[in-house]
Write a structure and sequence with these properties.
Shape: globular
Number of helices: 12
Strand order of the largest sheet: 1-2-4-3-5-6-7-8
Distance between the termini: 47 Å
Structural class: alpha/beta
Largest sheet: 8 strands, mixed
Length: 324
């Protein structure tokens, strides 16, 4: 009977996620962007400073930060000019140098990799002087072509939180595309969690405050898997299909964990199970999970948690700005 029940749950989950509860259906799977940033071979071959440059693949963000701290301003600028695609994506490099390196992609772009569907991180506010830092981790179907939606969410959160808070819109992992197996499994989230951990290690390496995470939909799976390896002060999930954890204790984090779900969110139709690698586990807004549940009754749908005027955005801003 137990085996039959698991089979039934798996079939239901597959029907909902693969068959299409929302969005467009997709039977294909995405290949996560991997490897060092473009231009790494030329970077590693550059001996003009008389010493080796840090390997983007193996050097830790703290080692990268120490390397740049030992350079003159002129040396730093030359590396930006000669190797913009490396410096612009190098966690641990000074924020202003990453901005300069990524300038063709826009103002205050903290990371940019156009390969495949593309990866990008953009900052709203004054990151270098911020007393508080927030990172928005989006869910499926977000890439360079659809990034404006996440960038606008960051701008709205930053405006609500105030001038001493900087908000990073982080589309730094390959998200699921459409409704399919990628959305129902943790494969892309695992790679995303590794990238998010390294990204936040880079923020720490340049002396920025511990960030708060705001994780939407599939992004909450990424944050759940990254939780134990980051120094996040708060983890806020919204419209979450689960965090691949039975409860807050299983996340193994010192961060405060918050959750919001609108009564009009289609995510409520997704079963909160994890069977044979399908599904993402318990609902973070359920009483037994242990997260602090935020009001979301005025949120009109799955993609509207950052809408100005909603109770969720007000609460998010209070968390991001250190007032809650």
């Amino acid at each position: 009977m137990r085996r039959f029940r698991k089979t039934l749950i798996t079939a239901l989950l597959t029907a909902l996620l693969v068959g299409g509860t929302a969005g467009r259906a997709s039977a294909s799977t995405e290949s996560p962007l991997s490897g060092p940033p473009p231009g790494t071979a030329a970077w590693l071959a550059d001996d003009s400073l008389g010493k080796e440059l840090p390997d983007p693949t193996t050097a830790s963000p703290s080692e990268v930060a120490a390397f740049f701290a030992g350079l003159t301003g002129a040396q730093q600028r030359r590396l930006v000019e000669d190797h913009p695609t490396v410096v612009g994506n190098l966690d641990g490099a000074p924020v202003h140098l990453r901005y300069e390196a990524n300038a063709p992609a826009g103002d205050q772009v903290l990371a940019y990799d156009p390969r495949g569907r593309g990866l990008i991180a953009h900052v709203a506010g004054d990151l270098e002087n911020a007393a508080h830092v927030a990172v928005i981790v989006p869910g499926s179907d977000i890439d360079i072509s659809t990034f404006d939606r996440t960038a606008q969410q960051a701008a709205d959160l930053q405006e609500e939180a105030g001038d001493d808070t900087a908000v990073i819109a982080w589309a730094g992992y390959t998200t699921p595309s459409g409704i399919g197996l990628d959305l129902a499994t943790g494969r892309l989230a695992e790679t995303g969690a590794e990238r998010l951990t390294r990204f936040t290690d880079g923020l720490d390496a340049v002396g920025l405050p511990a960030p708060s995470f705001f994780c939407h939909s599939y992004g909450s799976v990424v944050c759940g898997l990254a939780a134990s390896d980051t120094d996040a002060s708060d983890i806020v999930v919204m419209g979450s299909p689960g965090m691949r954890a039975d409860d807050v204790t299983a996340l193994d984090t010192d961060a405060r964990v918050w959750a919001a779900k609108s009564p009009d969110d289609w995510i409520d139709r997704v079963p909160n199970v994890e069977v044979l690698s399908l599904g993402h586990g318990a609902d973070p807004t359920s009483p037994g999970f242990g997260a602090t549940v935020l009001p979301a009754d005025d949120v009109p749908g799955h993609d509207e948690y950052f809408t100005p005027g909603t109770s969720t955005l007000t609460a998010f801003a209070a968390i991001a700005g250190g007032d809650l």
